[in-house]
Structure formats: structure tokens, C-alpha cells
Design goal:
Length: about 150
């Protein structure tokens, strides 16, 4: 079994949302397709929106940071699953790449908040994390455009 098939099988077995998203019909070449209504992508939007609301509510020292870190790690894993699904489908190169980048950036931004040495550095890190979480929502919910 190839690594790609083994990975796909593992993902399908790990989360029913992944199986539902992977079962969507194949893309018509050249036609823009929105994935925002697919279960996995809708879950990413909901989780990212909820985490952004938490981050935007932090003033100074983040509260329940340990719980937040767990939820952020779960979101990063879902972004990577979404990337892999789009890669397997061979569709939407931009979104595929952006989701991978967000998946890799979430832990970095969370660590920056956690290790900020001053209130100013923490405020900057919180702002960057908020922006990343918002970007995670917008890249999925923005309607795709036809290539010109």
C-alpha cells in the first residue's frame, strides 16, 4: 500500500468529517468550487471563529491557556486534514497551500503568546494569532473565483 493510500485510510478512519468531505463529488476541471459547506471545512470555520473570540477577549494575561492550546492543536490538525483532502482531490491549489500554512503557523503563534517576554510582545502575539484565526475563516468562506 502506498504511503498516500495509507495516510488517506488513516484519516478516513480517524474522523467521520474527513470521510464525508472526501466523499464529495470530484471537481469539474476549471469550475470554481466552494468547500465551505462541507462538514470538515464548516467545522474548521466554527472552531476557528470560536478560538478567535477567545483570543479577542484576552486582555493582558490569557485565561485557560492550557485548554486553548489543546483546542488550537486540534484546529491545526483539522487544517492539515483539509489540506490533504484537497491535495488528494487535486483541486484548489491556493486553498490547499494556505490551509497547510495555517496548520503549521497555529502552533508557532500560540507559542509566541505563551513565551512573550513583555506585555507589548504578548499584545503583538495575540494580535497575530487573532489575525491568523480570522484568516482561517476567510480563506474557506470566501467564494472561489474562476481562473482567468
Amino acid at each position: 500500500m502506498s504511503c498516500g493510500l495509507a495516510l488517506a485510510a488513516a484519516l478516513l478512519l480517524s474522523d467521520p468529517s474527513v470521510a464525508l468531505a472526501a466523499a464529495q463529488p470530484a471537481a469539474v476541471p476549471g469550475a470554481p468550487i466552494s468547500v465551505a459547506s462541507e462538514p470538515l471545512f464548516a467545522d474548521i470555520v466554527a472552531r476557528s471563529s470560536a478560538l478567535k473570540a477567545i483570543v479577542d477577549g484576552w486582555a493582558g494575561e490569557p485565561s485557560d491557556f492550557a485548554g486553548f492550546k489543546v483546542q488550537a492543536a486540534e484546529l491545526a490538525a483539522l487544517d492539515m486534514q483539509a489540506h490533504l483532502i484537497l491535495k488528494e482531490r487535486g483541486t484548489d491549489g491556493d486553498l490547499k497551500c494556505i490551509l497547510r500554512g495555517i496548520s503549521e503557523d497555529i502552533p508557532v503563534k500560540v507559542a509566541a503568546v505563551e513565551t512573550a517576554a513583555s506585555p507589548e510582545a504578548r499584545a503583538t502575539a495575540i494580535g497575530e494569532l487573532s489575525y491568523l484565526l480570522n484568516d482561517n475563516v476567510e480563506v474557506i468562506t470566501t467564494p472561489p473565483r474562476a481562473e482567468s
